[in-house]
């Protein structure tokens, strides 16, 4: 495959389509990101939005502070706003790369404004390495499509305009423009799997197959087309996407199709994926269960079936009761906004589900225990223990998933749940 010249033409094309509010360039000071920073500076008159440069200090190298200062100076010399963020977490050699990546992208998402664009300088060699790494891990089509050029990210998008550019092209650009870059010694540490592939495997592959990197990256692109079509087909089945998945819907499809549907449903809620074995176990339980119940735990989540529906739920939540405010975040429960209340919030308190409490919702004729109401509303037992209750003085006036108490119709509460449901207003 013929190498393309180093340019930002794809970025300019996407910019015309999307019109970003701002750009955020992830810059480690390495060759790739310094080259992109230089290209952006050279053509900054074509940028239709402000550009900020963000440096993430992982704290793994004694020189990381100096590297950040160096990137800051270059950014300011070019006239760009600079952001320096330091991560603090324990290094676990076994999965340090995954931990660092997750923490890094969490910072990027936090800093990205609505309709903003995260820019990264990933290139074709990175793409080929990612596909081969995921293949060796036994990944499915999501992993084998490697990195998309564009995707939704946080409140905006993530763009990788150089995925068709080879590493050698970037290095040639740096030489031609006499640009310096940071050489992180950890990039030579072959105890990291990606580095081992880069330094040990790919030289052999390219020696035996001169176009190996190009061809592997092309395969990722072709698989991406298959993935896009598959996702569209799955979305047509799942539409509209909800917080619960019908068991009767799954029953219409084969075992392999069920797995695809469950994974796609989870991806719509931005959740981690169960392993092949975990999902196999869940479907086994579901098929063998007399009462239609099944449950697995993975990556801090419950995936479970109850009364004909499949739910997901965060494994951990906080039992510490927050202060009653107009807008409160409750760890593991969600965000609760009290938009209108016929009484002072200072006279209120939060509580969690006590089974013996009696309650009469609006428009209902009788009081029943909360346990009875939860059964009527088909709320799974796993969810009940994290249902928030609002008391005014000593009177229960609102129950999550059910609504207001009779006589308190003016109360308006919005609950954006964490880990298992969409916003519900009562």
From TrEMBL:
SMART domains to which the protein is assigned, alphabetical: TilS_C
Signal peptide, first to last residue: none
Catalytic activity, reaction form: cytidine(34) in tRNA(Ile2) + L-lysine + ATP = lysidine(34) in tRNA(Ile2) + AMP + diphosphate + H(+)
Swiss-Prot/TrEMBL GO biological process terms: tRNA modification
InterPro entries: Lysidine-tRNA-synth_C, Rossmann-like_a/b/a_fold, TilS/TtcA_N, tRNA_Ile_lys_synt, tRNA_Ile_lys_synt_N, tRNA_Ile_lys_synt_subst-bd
Annotated Lysidine-tRNA(Ile) synthetase C-terminal domain residues: 348-415
Keywords attached to this entry: ATP-binding, Cytoplasm, Ligase, Nucleotide-binding, tRNA processing
GO cellular component: cytoplasm
SUPFAM superfamilies: Adenine nucleotide alpha hydrolases-like (SSF52402), MesJ substrate recognition domain-like (SSF82829), PheT/TilS domain (SSF56037)
ATP-binding among keywords: yes
EC id: 6.3.4.19
CDD domains cross-referenced by the UniProt entry: TilS_N
Binding-site residues, ATP: 28-33
Pfam families on file: ATP_bind_3 (PF01171), TilS (PF09179), TilS_C (PF11734)
GO molecular function, one term: tRNA(Ile)-lysidine synthase activity
Cell compartments where the protein resides: Cytoplasm
Listed NCBIfam families: lysidine_TilS_C, lysidine_TilS_N
PANTHER family on file: TRNA(ILE)-LYSIDINE SYNTHASE-RELATED
HAMAP family: tRNA_Ile_lys_synt
Domain remarks: The N-terminal region contains the highly conserved SGGXDS motif, predicted to be a P-loop motif involved in ATP binding.
Family per similarity comment: Belongs to the tRNA(Ile)-lysidine synthase family.
Role: Ligates lysine onto the cytidine present at position 34 of the AUA codon-specific tRNA(Ile) that contains the anticodon CAU, in an ATP-dependent manner. Cytidine is converted to lysidine, thus changing the amino acid specificity of the tRNA from methionine to isoleucine.
Protein name: tRNA(Ile)-lysidine synthase
Organism: Suttonella ornithocola
